[in-house]
What we know:
Chain B: Keywords: ATP-binding, Cell membrane, Ion transport, Iron, Iron transport, Membrane, Nucleotide-binding, Transport. The complex is a heterodimer. By secondary structure, chain A is mainly α.
Amino acid sequence: MAVAxxxxxxxxxxxxxxxxxxxxxxxxxxxxxxxxxxxxxxAAVVTTACVLLGVGTAFLVIRTDLxxxxxxAVLAALPLAVPTYIAAFAWVSAMPRLEGxxxxxxxxxxxxxxxxxxxxxxxxxxxxxxxxxxxxxxxRSGWQTFTAxxxxxxxxxxxxxxxxxxxxxLSDFGxxxxxxxxxxxxxxxxxxxxxxxxxxxxxxxxxxxVLTVLLLTGETATRRRGARYARLGGARRAVSRLSLGPxxxxxxxxxxxxxxxxxxxxAVSLGRRLxxxxxxxxALPEVLAAAGNSLTVSLAGAALTMLLALPLGLLAARAPGxxxxxxxxxxxxxHALPGVVIGLSLIFFxxxxxxxxxxxxxxxxxxxATLFLPLAVGAVAGAAAQSxxxxxxxxxxxxxxxxxxxxxxxxxxTLPGIGAGAALVFLTGMKELPATLLLRPTGTDTLATExxxxxxxxxxxxxxxxxxxxxxxxxxxxxxxVARSGLLDKEDxxxx
Amino acid sequence: xxNVVLSGVVKRYGRVTxxxxxxxxxxxxxxxxxxxxxxxxKTTLLRCLAGFERLDAGEIRIDGTRVAGGGRHLPAHRRxxxxxPQEGALFPHLSVADNVGYGLDRATxxxxxxxxxxxxxxxxxxxxxxxxxxxGGQQQRVAVARALAPRPSVVLLDEPFSALDAGLRAGLRHxxxxxxxxxxxxxxxxxxxxxxxxxxxxxxxxxxDGRVIQAGSPTTVYREPADPWVAGFVGDAVLLxxxxxxxxxxxxxxxxxxxxxxxxxxxxxxxRPEQVRFATGPGAISATVLRHDFHxxxxxxxxxxxxxxxxxxxxxxxxxxxxLGGEVTVHVDGAARVFPCAERPGGQVEPSTGPVxxxxx
Lengths: 496, 361
């Protein structure tokens, strides 16, 4: 937990040191107001678009008789495999004049709507069809039932997805930087990287943290109110599918269009640049060296993260209580903290507190641990649920001691989930950009930083191999996510 | 085969007292049913026995050895008490044979004990299957076999049949009873279903508000319930106000002989619906038919006596032709159980409203 809090505590201390007047001077400027407006506006626009796109797509692929819906489900989830900075790079390299707020909103929406789609699809699949049937039998029309029952059934999933998107947009650095949309993250990086304006960067970071906290508490508040989603026992029944009729053609066109924008544009653009890029002399050894660096740093980060996540995840799963909720939220807060802020606070932390760590891969691993702890905690808690306490009690009642129970029941049931969590953290670490940029030891380049450096100087062809490799790597955790969401499950019953 | 004794067991969860001094003796080699309504503390009792919960007071002894209470808490895995949870809880990553062999040491696992207990529960040859390939009833059978395999002192069954449908339940509970008996196992079955408790148990223990109200054989608990509440909980009951004179009770159903020695005075008498017979002749009371609930093997007939008292009679179908609103004559067969008039508030029968018909179905 200390890991998740170190950057936050440090941020507070250093900002405080600057003194009230200085903070106010930095804060009450037209620029900060504009940045705040633009960041929040971007988050609002992208989140709204993602909710519409995500819920709509989820409904089409799960609850209608759309032809080829399983293929569409996979297509719709695939944009997760494209890191935002690569999508942005692909768009810019296709249309070099593209920049500003709306292009950034477009790219971010196309990259992050699967965050809404996946949980909503899982919720739609798991929802009790009897509730809708009751609503229909009580005289409500199909549309009334959809708004009054279905949307409410998936409300927790939608809210969770929307929160993820909003946090993601607030903390996104790559896409807004490449598309030159001036938001907090970009401003912080520019202040630090160009001007070495420490106080300015810190104050801006603090404002961003406050925005994030507001978002998180707002979400918690709405969740508390009347949150009751009863699901009485009984076997799960397959959901019934809505017959689209002639409406299925426009629906298909819409899905194909979204997939074309989200996947087609990056694919074509990357492919074109790749053809030019690999032929460059000396490209392959550079790419391999960067890949090696990415690998070692991410491995160290994943190991550290899982070490910290194991106790936390088990605690969250086994002893739900106020303490667990607080721990859970704090970890989310750290997750919502932009990589730029984490990187920045760890730089100061490294220079002033833990100098031996500064300029080593371990500091970067620490940053990954902070950033990805929530991912790992979620995976561990989910895995722990695979081994309910009832099973362990039965094992004990059969005369097996605690260690034997751990070895023969708990571990065999939880290890696959924990392993998947570790893989997810590892692969996400490979994609991470801003913290890596700030914290990598001088001279150590990873796939992500090489891509960034090349893009910054307009060397699009040189950047392409890194981008392609990163997309390939990102595809793996995406596949895991998709497989777990139940999108690919065999149909458990035909249309009824 | 062991003898389990609980004395004065108290268990609290925060401000809720789940067990308020429960006393219970489980005789060796028998099946004891712990019967009670939801929330009476029966699952807590079972968890205390198994060693999943620590007692707040009281003690538990197995064959005279104290396993819980007085500062001692023998952990669950040293108690030799195997549980069969409500949902079976088979280990999903182990085959049926490995599930059953889980509590066995290596040597016994290789012997034919696994196959033996599987045969006991009627699943011989299923050892190679995985739990998800079994139906719900089969999973419960495996859970029972798994609990029996290490020959524990006691097998605890926590409402193991409640998740199954009625037809399956009757067959399974009979088979499980046979398996326990064939293996000479001591069993404790927790249930809220009085039919289940009465039909399979050697001893029925009625639990209410964390206390044992009555313990005895199924016939004793049914015929001689400790109080009117137990009478109504274990079966359909007609409770009537009455006055005892010279060993007989004067009731709205005529003069009824009472069981045991009772001093004269006002009382409440218990008549089971099957004691109310359609008959003619001296002493027969006329009644109006209000209701006729046909159950196939028998029927419950709701009657109103001349003074407005409502009672229920159980008749074997075909005995008598009854028509709603028709007049019949009845009398009480056998002796009635008598309770002191104000035995407990709420259970008391007020003369103005007539007798209470308490039934749990």
